[in-house]
Amino acid sequence: MGDVQHTAGSRKQARKTTAYRYPNERAILAVTLTLVILVIALTATATVCLSAVFVLAMLLISYLVTRSQHQALMANGRQVTPRSTPGLHAIVEESARRLQPGPVQVFVVPSRTMNAYTFGLSSPKTVVLHAPLLQAMDGDELRFVVGHEMGHVSLGHTWLNSLVGGLAGIPSPFFASALLALAFLWWNRACEFSADRAGLLACGDLRKAVSALVKLAAGSNARTRADLEKAVQRIEAEDDHPLSGLGEALRTHPMMVRRIEELQRYAASSQYRRLQARMSRDVMRG
Ligand SMILES: [Zn+2]
């Protein structure tokens, strides 16, 4: 019975018009495809391992840079303490109670520019304020600036920046490199919007948050009301140019006009009001 079937099968095979296939063709195809898959798997593993080494090296470098930055601060800056700058220290404490950034040291450094930034991979994180900020801004505006930086700390942006920056910097073909760099900057700008929200939560006054941003944009040369009005005009004209969005894509910070619009939108939201009320309750409770 089986024999009959077998013969029938062979006869069927022989009738196929492709029966002339060389005996090992299929086996060789299978070996070739297996090799292709193996090579892809091996090169992918090598890329993952090399990328991991690259990112670890970048993290180590940014740790060392951070440490030397910190040493320079210790030499040139003044740490904010209840003794050195009691007013500013109170603002720092209040903002920290609302935003809960964990251990943070704040320094004031001499400078000609109006700037604030934060850094640190390990605890405590460091917030740096350029000295002209203290002259140009009132308490609520400083609360916004300090809150903005503490927001970066609370949301983990300081260490994420080193990690994501390392990942986005992985050596890759030109097009891929450019794409990763653009994506990294895009994320950077999103972080600024988040930190601005923290600033608003710390200061609780949209008008003051906006005037702090205007003063930052105006720079330390802006002293009079007319200088600030000029800065406002410049900000309002920022997105007039059709190519301004393209320029923004290459920067770590969004256009000031967009930051102000985003803040206004957030300040009007029920999400903001709820969170602001909750933070005030938590502070009252201690
Ligand atoms: Zn920022």
What order do the helices and strands come in, and which of them pair?
Blueprint: H1 2-15, H2 25-76, E1 78-79, H3 86-99, E2 104-109, E3 116-119, E4 125-130, H4 131-136, H5 139-154, H6 157-168, H7 174-203, H8 206-218, H9 225-236, H10 244-248, H11 256-267, H12 270-285
Parallel strand pairs: 2-4
Antiparallel strand pairs: 1-2, 3-4
Helix pairs in contact: 2-6, 3-5, 3-7, 5-7, 5-8, 6-7, 7-11, 8-9, 8-11
The structure holds zinc ion (ZN).
Structure write-up:
The structure is a single chain. The chain is built from 12 helices and 4 strands; from the N terminus they run ααβαβββααααααααα. It has helices spanning 2-15, 25-76, 86-99, 131-136, 139-154, 157-168, 174-203, 206-218, 225-236, 244-248, 256-267, 270-285; strands at residues 78-79, 104-109, 116-119, 125-130. The chain is elongated and about 100 Å long. The termini are far apart. By secondary structure, it is of the alpha+beta class. It has a 4-stranded mixed β-sheet with strand order 1-2-4-3, with helices on both faces. It has one domain. 71% of the residues lie in helices and 6% in strands. The model has no long low-confidence stretch (mean pLDDT 90). β3 and β4 (125-130) form a beta hairpin. The site of zinc ion has 4 residues, from α5 and α7.
